[in-house]
Design a protein that fits this description.
The protein is built from 31 helices and 33 strands. It is α/β, with parallel strands linked by helices. Among the domains are: about 210-420, Alpha-Beta Complex (Isoleucyl-tRNA Synthetase, domain 2); about 620-795, Isoleucyl-tRNA Synthetase, Domain 1 (Orthogonal Bundle); about 885-954, Helix Hairpins, CATH 1.10.287. Strand 26, helix 18 and strand 27 (about 590) form a beta-alpha-beta unit. The longest helix has about 30 residues, at about 925-954. The protein is elongated and about 120 Å long. It starts with 8 loop residues before the first helix and ends with a helix. The protein binds one RNA strand through helix 13, helix 21, helix 23, helix 27 and helix 29.
Length: about 950
RNA sequence: GGGUGAUUAGCUCAGUGGUAGAGCGCUUCGUUCACAUCGAAGAUGUCGGGAGUUCGAAUCUCUCAUCACCCA
């Protein structure tokens, strides 16, 4: 049956994928023929996720490595699964409920809401898995895992691989708690007012926005004054005035209400006279104005603003540090939705107590947290509205620093300046630093082994620059806030009694036992999603149970993931694996960049430059997309995806398809796998080229240089197999004595090409493989070749065929430049030729005549008038084209060739004649340079002769 | 401000000390029995600037410029 003219991926890909799945081709250990294992853990996509180009890239690379190892006979496992993605999923379900007009989260209550989430997960949670299948991902889906599997409320039983994932999470928490690695405390955290939860540093996106800097006067207590002096760099006085205030610049006036002090740099001479005195916060009811101390701290930058900084420990990270150093009270001003607090005692009462503290009274953190210092008229307001009111009140009172505008009017000094503002990466709202009780992992205690793993080389990060980034972050690691005020997640296994004592245990019963039977309430918070993702490499293998999979496949081998989650995930997996198991989770980390559009811009919905990988698969097929991904994957490279490129690789697939079609027409598709006994130089040559390809593909994939592997395959398939070998084969297939061996060689070469292309282009290669008739196995389980060039490369055939190619190219080039009609067969005169050339010509005359479109080759030393000269290594040929030759064009052609040669000869001769080069360069480089020079000089001599002959014509 | 990287053909990018490369695009020619999703031939480079190390530098070092990303 004749093959179709082109491969139809839309039709064939789903059929082929189904065939693989039905055959169990992806199962862990499938096609295993040796003892070594090879394991990759998929970076679990969010259960809410839809496949984007980043996933497509990331998973293509993983699939290439997996398929390659599986074919090589490793016991291979590609562990798939999904992440429960706390915030994203909770948000998604809330949105759905709202859209349905159903009762919301709070109305439902925790338990009912979680039921809805599980329901949602059951319905929509597999979207991304189906999308990964369209890419050709050969994960062992029978082992699909989930980071919330086995949590209370999980309606599924038995059909998921990791029913114990929840147990693993709880076990690790309890273990780390008992070791003192997890503690609870009041800390300043990034608070997301939309989701009303704490989030980690990594979930905060700092963006530059237009902001304002206000300047206000904090009057000194009791009307005190001081001499304020400013000097220039040389110490000359530029300003001297008597002041009864200290000037403060702030971008967040609403937080003034919670100020605990004003700080200046200890070396700042301007404020030295007033350090230790009190000043007044210029806002709030006049009769209850609070006085706060002026302190010194190294944090304020004397050159920035006025050099004096207000300290609001509960709402700014820098201030928090200053307040802790100086034992300054931290007054929380906002509630969980970032509205000004409206709880607690009236302002007058709170302010009076705060004043006692400022005057030196003892206080506790807990007491301070109960004090609501928001004036009664501002309570309950949104933080931005409160800001406006505060600014207005201060300005009306005349306590804003004034300046003059363009018209000479006095106006408040407000600088417009870009400021960096923190946003929640999920909610997009401005993050509020908030002083709250949270759970923390004391990462400083567990970071050591992870750092050591990379420093010692046990774990290799690629590209190497990733290691520096890794060190930098881990060496300066901050405590990791792991509690989230959400419902969807692993609830923290800690219970409290009425006195607030903590009981951490794997179950409520165990906790109650510890508490001696006292009534307990459970901490409502859940764990950061990344806490459970950190256990991915072993939680998916059945840990904490002692499973065969855990023993066999852990530690895993290569982790392929985006650079952006090096800290989120990679570093934490390394820390947690070491903390829990005392082992590294993998030995190699391959980091890649974000996939961008063809101009290098981030893809974003607002820019409208998003490329949907599934649309690409629809239009060009998964193989074309995969090949493009592999081809882009230079280590550390920027990833720019353009549809033109994808189209090019779709064309590559068609080229391969047509080569197979040609083979099939000639009865040369599908070999029995035995190495053909070739006698024709062309056949010997292609066998050697296949061996070269095998070596370069393996070398490239071993080094994770996917682009090198893809390019080697492309260059071989198109540039060697199709451009030359199939053309060489045509006269051979028509011959009596070489036809059989050529069919065998072609079948073998194409099978080898399909095999080696399969990890990158699994669909089209499997399809062609299957078209060749009865095979013992599918290509996905074909054994990967191991032959070497030492075994298969015939050096003589290699030299010979390269000479043949260069002769054909030289003749074609001369013909084209002389505008010889492409269809015209011309005679060729052999002018002179060395022995090797004679032999190559004799063996391959049929190929040369066909490909260079030559009518006859005759040998004669004396040339007729009007010849074009073609020089090749070892000799020269002439094309007698007196009737169509353009002498000037030929002269120009020769001159140009001579110029180029002359330049090369100059360079080579310069080196050879330099005694220092001969003395210092390696012998083989010197020899090579000499040989090269000799060749060039020989060619130059021939061309000069030819040019002289032409000039004699005139 | 700190860190990391980039700068090579018109475009997108490979290239870790030994004759500057690929794909796309461009020009000319071509319906040769696998392929027009194709074939043949061709043009295009002070390898960002400057300095240094070296027999030899796109590659190593320093410096300047521009850009990108990450963290403040």
């Amino acid at each position: 049956m004749a093959m179709e003219k082109t491969f139809d991926p839309q039709f064939a890909e789903p059929r082929l994928y189904q065939a693989w799945e039905q055959a169990g081709a992806f199962r862990a250990g499938a096609n295993r023929s040796r003892d070594e294992t090879f394991t990759i853990m998929i970076p679990p996509p969010n259960v809410t996720g839809a496949l984007h180009v980043g996933h497509a890239f990331n998973n293509t690379l993983q699939d290439i490595l997996i398929r390659w190892h599986r074919m090589r006979g490793f016991d291979t496992l590609w562990q798939p699964g999904q992440d429960h993605a706390g915030i994203a999923t909770q948000l998604q379900v809330e949105k759905m409920l709202a859209a349905q007009g159903a009762p919301g989260r709070r109305e439902l209550g925790r338990e009912k809401f979680l039921e809805k989430v599980w329901e949602w997960k059951g319905k929509y949670g597999d979207t991304i898995i189906d999308q990964l299948k369209r890419l050709g991902a050969s994960c062992d889906w029978s082992r699909n895992a989930f980071t919330m599997a086995g949590a209370p409320g999980d309606p599924r039983t038995g059909h998921e691989n990791s029913p114990n994932f929840h147990d693993a999470v709880i076990r690790v928490f309890v273990n780390m708690y008992e070791k003192g690695l997890i503690t609870r405390g009041k800390r300043l955290v990034n608070w997301d007012p939309h989701f009303e939860t704490a989030i980690s540093d990594l979930e905060v996106e700092n963006r530059e926005v237009d902001g304002h800097m206000w300047h206000f006067k904090y009057p000194l207590a009791d009307g005190e004054t001081y001499e304020y002096v400013e000097r220039d760099e040389d110490g000359n006085v530029t300003l001297r005035e008597t002041r009864d205030y200290i000037s403060i610049a702030t971008t967040r006036p609403e937080t003034m209400l919670g100020d605990g002090a004003v700080a200046v740099h200890p070396d700042d001479a301007r404020y030295a006279p007033i350090v230790g005195k009190l000043c007044e916060i210029p806002v709030g009811p006049k009769e209850f104005r609070r006085l706060i101390p002026i302190i010194t701290d190294p944090y304020p930058d004397p050159d920035f603003g006025s050099g004096a900084v207000k300290i609001t420990g509960a709402h700014d990270f820098n201030d928090y540090q200053v307040a802790r150093r100086g034992h300054i009270p931290m007054y929380r001003l906002m509630d969980t939705s970032a509205h000004m607090r409206s709880d607690g005692a009236p302002y007058a009462e709170a302010a009076a107590r705060a004043q006692e503290i400022a005057n030196g009274a003892d206080f506790t953190e807990a007491e301070v947290d109960t004090l609501n210092l928001v004036p009664d008229d501002l309570r309950g307001l949104d933080r931005y509205e409160a800001r406006e009111r505060v600014v207005r009140q201060i300005t009306e009172e005349g306590l804003a620093v004034m300046t003059t505008d363009a018209d000479g009017n006095a106006v408040p000094l407000v600088e417009n300046k870009p400021i960096m503002q923190p946003f929640g990466d999920r909610s997009g709202v401005v993050i509020e630093p908030m002083l709250t009780d949270q759970w923390f992992v004391d990462t400083a205690q567990i970071v050591g082994p992870a750092l050591e793993a990379v420093r010692s080389g046990r774990v290799k990060i690629m590209p190497e620059s990733g290691e520096k980034v890794f060190y930098h972050w881990l060496e300066n690691i901050e405590p990791w806030c792991i509690s989230r005020q959400l419902w969807w997640g692993h609830q923290i296994p800690v219970w409290y009694d009425a006195e607030g004592n903590e009981y951490c245990a794997a179950s409520e019963e165990a906790a109650r036992e510890k508490a001696g039977g006292k009534p307990l309430t459970r901490d409502p918070d859940v764990l950061d999603t990344w806490f459970s993702s950190g256990l991915w490499p072993f939680g998916t293998l059945g840990w904490p149970q002692d499973t065969p999979e855990m023993r066999r496949y852990f530690p895993t081998d290569v982790l392929i993931t985006g650079q952006d989650i090096l800290f989120f995930w990679v570093a934490r997996m390394m820390m947690m694996s070491q903390a829990v198991l005392g082992e590294d989770p993998f030995h190699t980390v391959y980091l890649h960049q974000l996939v961008r559009d063809e101009k290098g811009q981030k893809m974003s919905k607002t820019k409208g430059n998003v490329i949907d990988p599934l649309e690409i698969v629809d239009e060009f097929g998964a193989d074309a997309l995969r090949f493009t991904m592999a081809q882009m994957a230079a280590i550390g490279g920027v990833l720019k995806l353009s549809t033109d490129r994808i189209k090019g690789y779709r064309n590559f697939g068609t080229k391969l398809w047509n080569a197979a079609r040609f083979a099939e027409m000639n009865g040369a598709l599908g070999s029995d796998g035995t190495l053909p006994a070739a006698t024709a130089p062309a056949n010997k040559w292609i066998i050697g080229e296949v061996a070269r390809l095998r070596e370069s593909v393996d070398e490239a994939l071993t080094a994770l240089r996917f682009n090198d592997a893809a390019n080697a395959l492309y260059a071989f398939t198109w540039g060697k197999l199709c451009d030359w070998y199939l053309e060489f084969s045509k006269p051979l297939l028509a011959s009596d004595d070489k036809a059989a061996e050529t069919r065998a060689t072609m079948a073998w070469a194409i099978d080898q090409t399909l095999t080696m292309l399969h990890p990158i282009m699994p669909f089209i290669t499997e399809e062609i493989w299957g078209l060749a008739g009865a095979r013992g196995n599918m290509l996905i389980h074909q054994d990967w070749p191991e032959y070497t060039t030492d075994q298969l490369l015939d050096a003589e055939a290699d030299r010979e065929m390269n000479w043949v190619i260069s002769l054909i190219e030289a003749i074609r080039s001369a013909r084209a430049q002389m505008h010889v009609p492409a269809g015209l067969k011309i005679p060729v005169i052999l002018q002179e030729l060395d022995e090797a050339g004679h032999s190559a010509l004799a063996e391959n005359e049929a190929l040369i005549r066909r490909l260079a479109r030559i009518e006859s080759i005759t040998e004669q030393a004396e040339l007729p008038k009007g010849c074009i000269t073609v020089a090749v290594p070892g000799g020269s040929f002439a094309l007698p084209l007196a009737e169509i030759i353009d002498v000037d064009a030929e002269k120009a052609r020769l001159s140009k060739a001579l110029d180029k040669l002359a330049k090369e000869i100059r360079g080579l001769a310069g080196r050879v004649n330099n005694p220092k080069f001969v003395a210092s360069a390696p012998a083989e480089v010197v020899a090579e340079t000499r040989a090269n020079l000799a060749l060039r000089e020989e060619e130059e001599a021939r061309l000069r002769e030819a040019l002289a002959r032409l000039e004699a014509l005139d």
